[in-house]
Each structure stands twice: as C-alpha cells, then as structure tokens.
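Assemble and predict.
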Amino acid sequence: MKRTSNLVAAAVASTLLGLAACETTPDSSALLEQARTAVAQAESDPNVTKYAPTELDRARKLLANAEGSAKENGAKDTSASHYAYLTTQMARIAQQRAQEQASITRIKSGETERKEVLLTARENEANAAVAQAQAAKADAQSAQAQAQSAQAESQRLAALLEDMQASQTSRGIVLTLDDVLFDTGKAKLKPGAERSIEQIASFLSENPERRVQVEGFTDSQGTDDYNLELSQSRADAVAMAIIQRGIDAQRVRALGYGEGFPVAGNESDGSRQLNRRVEIIVSNGDSAIPARAAGVP
Amino acid sequence: MITVSGIRNAFWCAIAFGIVACASAPPPVEKLAVAKSSIERAEQAQAAQFAQIELNSARNKYAAAQAAADKHDADVAARLADQADIDAQLAESTARAKQQEQLVNEMDASLRDLRNETLRRDTSGTATPPPAPQPQ
C-alpha cells in the first residue's frame, strides 16, 4: 500500500518534471478554436479557393491532425496545440498568397485597361482631326459653290446686259426699251416687249434682293401734261408686266418724266425716237436707287 | 509517508522519463535547415519591411529551436523549427502580398490620372497638352 502510493507520487512527479523540461503546455482548445476560425475564413475567401487551393488543403490536413491529437490525448496535448498553431498560420499563408495572386491578376488587367484608354484617346484624336479636315473641306466646297454661283450670276447678268444693250451706271444697271414696244400715243405694251420683260422678271426672281425702277420718257412734241401722263402710263405698263410675272410690287417702282432728261436733241425724227423710251434701272444689290439728277444718265 | 528510497526511486524515474520524453530522438537537423532557408527567403522578400512581426517570430523560434537542439531537446527543437518555418512562410507571403497591393494602388492612381487626362483632352477639343509621365 505504501509502495503503491510512492510509485504513484513518483510517476506524477516525473511526468511534471518531464513536461517542465520540454515546455509549458497551454490548453489547446483555444488554439484549436482559432485554427478552425482561420480555416473557415480562408474557405470563405473566393480568392483562396481560386488561387491557393494547395495551401488551403494543407491547412485542412493540419487542422485534422490537431483535432485528432486533441481527441486522442486530451486538451492538454502538446501536438494538438502545435498542429493548431500550424493550421492557423497555414490558413493565413493561403490568404496572403491568394491576395498576392489576385493583385497580380488585377495589375495585368490594369495594363490592358491602360492600353485601351490610350487607344481610345488616340482614336478620338484621330476622329477629331478627320472631322476637322472634313469641315475644312466642306467649307472650301461651299466657298467654291458660292464663288461658282456668283460667277454664274455675273455671267447671266452680263448676258442680260448684252442682250438688252444695258449699261452699268452709278445708279445701277440701266436697260432701255425703245418706243417700238408701244403704239404711238398708246401705253399698251406690244407683244415684242415680252422677251425683255421675261428676262428682267426671271433675273429679279433669281436675285430677290434687287429692285427695279421703271422710268418713262417722251419727246418734246405735245403738251407737257400729256407727255408726263403718257410717260407715267408707259412706265406703269412695264412695271405691271414685271409684277404680273411674280415679282413683288414693293420691289418695282414706276415713274414718268415726260419730255425731261432727253438723250438726244428733238430736232429730227431719229433723235426724237431716241428720246421716246422706257428705262429700267436695276439696283446694285439691295441698295436704294438714287433719284435722277439733271445731267446724270 | 514518503521514504528516502521512495524519493530516490522517483528521482531516477523522473530522470529516465525526462530522457525518454526529451532526448529520445536525434536533433532535427533537417527541420532546422528548412526553417533557416524559409527565413532567408522571407528576408529576400523584404519581410523585414513588410511583415516584421511574423519575421521576428520566425527568428525567435529558430533561435529557441537551436537552443533546444543544443540541449538535446529534440522534440521541442523539432516543433519550434516547424513553427519557425511556417512563421517565415507567412512573413514571406505577407510581404509579397503587401508589395503587390502597393503596385495595384499605384496602377489605379495612374489609370485615374490617365482617364482624367484624356477626358480633359476630349472635352477641351483644343491642342493636346504633352502627355503626363506614366508612373511605372
């Protein structure tokens, strides 16, 4: 009985001594709990399952070892604590390696992104340059078109002037219709006037900014009143013919000057015929036609 | 009721047990070498800067493992060497992860600058300013 108790005491003492010689043994249950948490955390990290499956596997095996040791040898077991510690660290390693790989992948995609941004910027610049060039070309074309239409207009005007024996004066373009277009003493236009009226009307409709002044004149035969009235009537007839061809009445003005402003002497039939006339003055652009002053054609 | 012979018995028993428990295995030379090379790898990965706590833990445990081995505590030395090894591995992976994270942050900043730059250029529509130097 005494011997047995001695032996038990010796065994307990030796055990304590032996353990003290090695290390102090903490309770493994706290370390095990820590290890389980670390593994669960790593498992829930999608980067870990993607980039560090080997490390995660190692952590799981270490955890199994720790749990096995604790089950077999109790919570105070040294290897249970040891494996629990290794488990926790391995789970952390798995997370760090996964994070590193995720960063490397992110950097690679960032490189691609950077190239795309640069490419887009370059394309935008190129597009802007093309758009600018096209705009410049369009400008040039419209300028050319304008020049062409201006040239065409001046050509048409020149043709008209030549056709109607018109002359450019400071008041505008002056076209002269002679008395052949009217019967003697009458203010009705003869059919022969059609062509000249047509030309003037179409010129005015193509140049909507221009206006005309129709001026009537007679020779010195007959009374002043009669001549004044006749010249006015003839000017009115020509103006009406122009308006009837679609020109706004606001742009057409008719004036009778009677025997005033003769272009020749009234001594002979020939010179009197020159004085019997209707002049049509076409404005320069949209400017008003200046009044006729004595001595100025 | 403890006799002198009982104490003597217990003493011898303890000595025997201690020897069996601690010095039964040869010193873990291989494990120590593995831990040492892991620490060196961690140092090369700039763990001293980016994972100081883990690296220090590995170094301390390695020193303790060597001390235990010198005292012929093979089991303790083996465990400490294993722990030094895994601490060093964690130090290395933490350092690498942190450095990559830094690179990601730098890249994000440079991408943001680049976007702002090109956006400004697009909206202003005027002559392009010289491109900002891109951080590597």
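Chain A touches chain B at residues 2, 5-7, 9-11, 13-15, 17-19, 21-23, 78, 82, 85-86, 89-90, 92-93, 96-97, 99-100, 103-104, 106-107, 110, 113-114, 117-118, 120-121, 124-125, 128 (CB under 8 Å).
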